[in-house]
Specification:
Blueprint: H1 3-10, H2 13-19, E1 29-30, E2 42-44, E3 49-51, E4 57-58, H3 60-68, H4 72-83, H5 92-126, H6 138-159, H7 162-173, H8 177-195
Antiparallel strand pairs: 1-2, 2-3, 3-4
Helix pairs in contact: 1-4, 2-3, 3-4, 5-6, 5-7, 5-8
This protein binds zinc ion (ZN).
């Protein structure tokens, strides 16, 4: 939540109007400060103000900006200062949560990659061509092609720096690769159970 959002979430146009000296009448109406208004023509809603006389409208930041002739960023800062609003910085708890979910992703990646590695090792052992004339089994080809890469990724997840591990995890999240790999592992396992 940035300062604009924090201010808008905490301060209604009515609160700002009262604070900045506009007498609020019945029905959340005030005399419009932006035109020569004798009867209250400006309605203060929960999230925005609107003047039926001159058409002035906007959120609480816009109201403050126009009242004090400030750019929006300065108006937001003024509101924050006047109403004691602190910009929400990611808390220690959020950081902890983030590192926890990172750890979960890593362990899931490790599990799925390990599962796939076993399948590949199995294929390499059992699907190898028996003689030079045999056609290459696609499972054997996949095993030859992928084994080293998967071993490499598992090595990084086991011994890599946090940055290296995060790269592997990020890479596996792309195009939903990890979930697809997990689903395929499961399917392969089920098929091999079915044929045994
Ligand atoms: Zn007006």
């Amino acid at each position: 939540m940035n300062l604009f959002e924090a201010v808008k979430a905490a301060v209604t146009p009515r609160m700002a109007a009262e604070r900045y000296g506009l007498p609020v009448r019945q029905g959340n109406m005030v005399c419009c400060p932006f035109h020569n208004d004798r009867t209250p023509s400006m309605k203060l809603n929960e999230e925005y103000f609107y003047c039926f006389g001159c058409g002035a409208h906007g959120d609480v930041v816009a109201l403050t900006a126009q009242l004090f002739d400030l750019p929006p960023a300065e108006a937001a800062k003024k509101l924050a200062a006047d109403f004691g609003i602190v910009e929400q910085k990611p808390s220690v708890l959020t950081k902890l949560k983030r590192s926890k979910s990172q750890a979960e992703l890593e362990s899931r990646s490790f599990r799925v990659l390990g599962d796939y590695l076993q399948i590949l090792q199995d294929w390499k052992a059992h699907c190898a061509p028996q003689s030079p004339e045999d056609a290459i089994n696609p499972r054997y080809a996949e095993a030859c092609h992928m084994l080293e890469r998967i071993e490499n990724m598992l090595d990084i997840l086991t011994c890599g720096t946090p940055k290296e591990r995060a790269e592997v995890v990020t890479d596996l999240q792309k195009d939903n690769r990890l979930a697809l790999m997990e689903a395929r592992n499961r399917q392969i396992r089920e098929e091999s159970h079915g044929t045994k």
